[in-house]
């Protein structure tokens, strides 16, 4: 009889193989999708940010031939850049179509009402949009080219006209009726100021005040006049839109007068602003009228504004730009931004931005001299009078204020005593200049994360090590889930409690908080020392690994005694007022919502993350390693330090870096628990503004596509890089530690 040997056969259920394949594919696809999502976020941020670094472009759009361009003394263009207007020296205003299918069409000619012969011409600050004629009888007439918008047959129609801000009334600047040789003016609803050079070389400041009869409604203009003392010839006159400052250029000297009060006009400064071997050729005021721009015949254009000095607020040279050399330059300002333009008698145009110290564009736009130049209200186009032609040029200059130096270096802003890092994106004033330094909010992000980690890391790691290595398994099953469930607490709740409860508590009981920070570690050590002195029978009655419960009364007692003694401590050590002591004695500013509050609140949010990962890392150390160490005679502490912690170091480091990443990206706590002030100060008693909080606060109010909007996306990109760098470094170090201690 023969017998056959039966070999065992191992078969796998086909459905299980399919499930394994599907699981493998799903996990791989999920990982790939996460990477794709990160890349999409990265490139979308770049897509939104990229336009702020685009170069300026200047392109010619339209050209109109003129029969006699020399008769025009002023030009301008309406807001939509459809119609341009030219003001002649005999008071005629011509309107031309400069866009659409009828480019070059002469639309209208309006003769202004003038009671005398024109001897001079001036225009107001660009945003005011007024022009004025000086007459041979010592009077000035203000005019304003305007456009009536109608929609016949649902089609937009512009009807050119000329308005008179003073109801065609001419201002008597010189009571002696001498001709106005040169003048400048400023106009508001309540006041009009004129600075004029008369034919007999007098410089007059005249202020006209509007007064309305409350019974008849008739308007009367009251006037006051003062003669300004200027030595030498007068080459140029300027006045700020609010009439507070008047500038008179005499050769290479500029006389600056305070003209806020007509009855108390005073000369506040005389500038000798020309460079060596150079002469002043032009001056103009930037938008906002806080900065004076000066051009020299050596091609330099300099910016001056008032700075606090030992002699008071004086105009000081801040920065200089290189214009076009060996050319006579004229200066032109935008309506609202701190951009300015230079034009020359050789047809050159320069585009500059003062605060970022940027030369945005230089080039030739005409063969002959540029006689007149005017920027459009939206700064996206300009009209140029040159070569007996009226040209309209498009200017693509959306974000002139943004450069790498303006974002990351100190910038000297108007009115500031020195260069500084400043983030201040909005204001209620039209003259406000946005300040977009990312340094203060990046600093605030690092500061908030640092104080949170100082609070969280020692507590979380100590708790993780004790829970994993010393605590009994029964107690660990209670403690670990309890700490981990803290992570489910919404950060908005933590921020709410920190801002409305913790911050006032710390302010009122600051000595108690300081006492707790000092006494708590000392009290725990004293309690541990006292425990070792107790009888062994009593000490052995406490289950092994449950000793931490005995510290709860110690912690509560130290907290209670610290708060009970808060007023006494404040009286003993701080003369009864800790905030006054910090300010007067230590020179520290105390904000109620400060870094201490943020450190505690955000540390509380970060502790569960660090604790959970670190505890798992320590608990996962193979038992044979610690048992072998103990068997060789090492103590528990020696085993912990020399074996367990080294083996668990990759996981512990990952825990710390994960906590740091959480702290860097935290939004709601720092939003609600700090003053959100973008200051650069390491003081624990002052607040900060972080990248994440700044985005959350300002994104809803930013205009889509504006510089502010795109810089907020740049801030998000910087935050993205922060977390990416931290995670990359963490992974690199973790791999190094794993390779080093994997053989244990």
Question: What does this protein look like?
Answer:
The protein has 744 residues and is of the alpha+beta class. The chain has 2 domains: 352 residues, Methylamine Dehydrogenase, Chain H, CATH 2.130.10.10; 303 residues, MetI-like (MetI-like fold), CATH 1.10.3720.10. The chain is 37% helix and 28% strand. The protein is built from 16 helices and 31 strands. Strands 6, 7, 8, 9 and 10 form a 5-stranded antiparallel beta sheet that branches. Strands 1-29-28-27 form a 4-stranded antiparallel beta sheet, with no helix packed on it. Helix 12 packs antiparallel against helix 13. The model has no long low-confidence stretch (mean pLDDT 87).
- What form results from the Cα inertia axes? elongated
- CATH 2nd-level architecture of the largest domain: 7 Propeller
Report the CATH C-level class of the largest domain: Mainly Beta
Beta-strand portion reads 25-35%
**CATH level-four homologous superfamily name of the largest domain:** YVTN repeat-like/Quinoprotein amine dehydrogenase
Biggest sheet architecture: 5 strands, antiparallel
- Overall SS class: alpha+beta
How far is the N terminus from the C terminus? 58 Å
Total DSSP helices: 16
> Percent helix among the residues?
25-40%
Assembly state (oligomeric): single chain
The overall pLDDT, averaged over residues, is 87
Number of folding domains? 2
Q: What ranges have pLDDT less than 50 throughout 5 or more consecutive residues?
A: none
The overall strand count is 31
Radius of gyration: 37 Å
**What's the CATH topology name of the largest domain?**
Methylamine Dehydrogenase, Chain H
């Amino acid at each position: 009889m023969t017998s056959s040997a039966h070999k065992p056969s191992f078969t796998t259920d086909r459905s299980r193989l399919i499930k394994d394949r599907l699981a493998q594919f799903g996990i791989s696809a999920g990982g790939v999708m996460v990477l794709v999502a990160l890349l999409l976020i990265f490139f979308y941020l770049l897509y939104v940010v990229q336009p702020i670094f685009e170069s300026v472009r200047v392109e010619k759009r339209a050209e109109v031939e003129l029969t006699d361009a020399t008769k025009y003394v002023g030009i301008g263009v309406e807001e939509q850049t459809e119609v341009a207007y030219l003001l002649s020296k005999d008071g005629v205003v011509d309107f031309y179509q400069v866009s659409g299918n009828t480019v070059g069409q002469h639309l209208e000619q309006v003769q202004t009402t003038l009671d005398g012969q024109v001897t001079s011409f001036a225009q107001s600050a660009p945003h005011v949009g007024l022009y004025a004629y000086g007459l041979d009888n010592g009077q000035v007439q203000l005019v304003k080219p305007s456009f009536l918008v109608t929609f016949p047959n649902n089609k937009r129609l512009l009807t050119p006209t000329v308005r008179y801000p003073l109801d065609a009334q001419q201002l008597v600047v010189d009571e002696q009726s001498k001709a106005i040789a040169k003048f400048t003016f400023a106009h508001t609803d309540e006041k009009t100021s004129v600075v004029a050079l008369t034919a007999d070389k007098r410089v007059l400041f005249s202020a006209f005040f509007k007064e309305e009869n409350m019974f008849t409604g008739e308007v009367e203009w009251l006037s006051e006049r003062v003669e300004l003392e200027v030595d030498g010839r007068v080459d140029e006159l300027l006045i700020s839109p609010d009439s507070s400052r008047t500038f008179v250029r005499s050769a290479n000297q500029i006389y600056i007068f305070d003209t806020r009060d007509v009855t108390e006009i005073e000369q506040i400064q005389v500038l000798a602003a020309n460079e060596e071997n150079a002469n002043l050729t032009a001056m103009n005021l930037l938008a906002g009228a806080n900065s004076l721009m000066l051009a020299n015949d050596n091609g330099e254009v300099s910016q001056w504004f008032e700075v606090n000095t030992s002699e008071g607020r004086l105009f000081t040279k801040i920065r200089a730009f290189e214009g076009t050399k060996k050319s006579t330059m004229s200066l032109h300002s935008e309506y609202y931004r701190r951009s300015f333009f230079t034009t020359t008698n050789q047809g050159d145009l320069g585009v500059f931005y003062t605060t970022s110290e940027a030369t945005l564009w230089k080039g030739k736009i005409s063969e002959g001299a540029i006689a007149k130049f005017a920027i459009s209200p939206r700064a996206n186009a300009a009209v140029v009078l040159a070569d007996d032609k009226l040209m309209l040029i498009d200017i693509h200059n959306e974000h002139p204020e943004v450069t790498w130096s303006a974002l990351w270096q100190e910038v000297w802003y108007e009115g500031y005593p020195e260069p500084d890092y400043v983030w201040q994106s909005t204001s209620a004033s039209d003259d406000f200049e946005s300040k977009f330094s990312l340094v203060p909010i990046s600093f605030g992000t690092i500061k908030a994360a640092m104080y949170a980690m100082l609070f969280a890391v020692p507590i979380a790691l100590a708790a993780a090590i004790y829970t994993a290595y010393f605590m009994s398994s029964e107690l660990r099953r209670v403690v670990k889930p309890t700490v981990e469930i803290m992570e489910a607490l919404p950060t908005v709740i933590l921020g709410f409690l920190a801002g409305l409860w913790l911050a006032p508590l710390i302010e009122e009981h600051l000595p108690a908080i300081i006492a707790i920070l000092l006494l708590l570690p000392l009290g725990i050590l004293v309690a541990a020392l006292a425990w070792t002195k107790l009888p062994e029978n009593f000490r052995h009655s406490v289950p092994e690994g449950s000793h931490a419960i005995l510290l709860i009364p110690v912690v509560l007692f130290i907290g209670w005694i610290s708060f009970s003694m808060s007023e006494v401590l404040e009286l003993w050590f701080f003369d009864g007022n800790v905030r006054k002591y910090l300010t007067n004695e230590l020179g520290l500013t105390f904000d109620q919502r400060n870094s201490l509050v943020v450190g505690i609140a955000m540390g509380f949010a970060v502790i569960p993350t660090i604790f959970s990962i670190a505890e798992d890392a320590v608990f996962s150390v193979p038992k044979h390693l610690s048992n072998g160490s103990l068997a060789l005679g090492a103590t528990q502490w020696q085993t912990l330090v020399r074996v367990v912690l080294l083996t668990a170091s990759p996981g512990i480091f990952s825990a710390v870096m994960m906590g740091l990443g959480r702290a860097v990206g935290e939004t709601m706590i720092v939003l609600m628990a700090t003053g959100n002030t973008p200051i650069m100060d390491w003081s624990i008693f002052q607040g900060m503004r972080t990248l994440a909080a700044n985005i959350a606060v300002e994104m809803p109010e930013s205009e889509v596509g504006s510089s502010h909007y795109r810089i907020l996306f740049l801030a998000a990109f910087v935050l993205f890089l922060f977390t990416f760098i931290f995670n990359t470094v963490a992974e690199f170090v973790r791999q190094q530690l794993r390779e080093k201690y994997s053989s244990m």
